[in-house]
Amino acid sequence: MINKRINIVLGIIFVILLAVAIFTRTGSSKIKVEDFTGKTYQDVINWAETNSVPDKSVVFNYVYSDTIPENNVISQNIRSGSFIASRNSLVLNISKGINPDKRITLMDFTGMNSEMIEAWLTENNFTNYRISSEINENAEENLFLYSEPAAGTRIRKDDEVNIVICEHDHSTTTSFPDFTGLTITEIQEWADTNNIQVNYIYYTDAAAEGSFLFSDLPVGSEIDKGSTISVAVSSGPGY
Fold first, then answer.
1. Which of 25, 72, 135, 214 is 20 to 30 A distant from 85 in Cα terms?
2. Among the listed residues 206, 213, 212, 214, the one whose alpha carbon sits nearest the alpha carbon of residue 238
3. What pLDDT does residue 201 have?
4. φ, ψ at 78 (rounded to 5°)
5. 78 inside domain
6. Is residue 134 part of a domain?
7. Are 31 and 51 in contact (CB under 8 A)?
8. Omega before 218 cis (within 30°)?
9. Is the same domain home to 88 and 115?
10. Is the pLDDT of residue 26 over 50?
11. How far apart are CA 7 and CA 27, in angstroms?
12. Domain that holds residue 79
């Protein structure tokens, strides 16, 4: 009779210990998973250390992403609010940033201003670009003029991109250049570009016809745009 009671007591103790063991493995060891999307790798490490999550229970996969910053969590295999047990692993995809070898077609920026172009470059994660201006009276001011490389080129996002925007010359004066060795055609091109009227005075000379001879204006002197200057040119030897 005594032995029977002892066996019953031992059986009860065994059941209690078994229940405690089961609870310990399936209850207290369960840890509630947070939503790590957008958080950093270090945030996950801190959470794991705080909750005594074994290293083997957290797995990191590193993948490229055009939208998620480097070292931030892209996705996870266990939903927020669920529990991670000792037999499970929390797998997180971590961003390696933009794939440096990925290529994109440089668009044609015709008709766009610098703000619109920069917005496109930023949105597409280009990191090595420069926007400058160039004087061109034949194109619309403040709009795209050309790019290097040209539109349609397949480039990486860290390749150098130079964008040139049209600028008009709003200065009221210009500097008188050295016309030595130039012809009437070249002098007139300069005059048209700088809004200068030229009075050509022809002299018989051994120099080739149409060649610059001299001017009363010193090289480098300031001239008001819209004004008229006189330039002596050769009419040829005359024989």
1. 72
2. 206
3. 96
4. -110, 125
5. yes
6. yes
7. yes
8. no
9. no
10. no
11. 29
12. 33-97
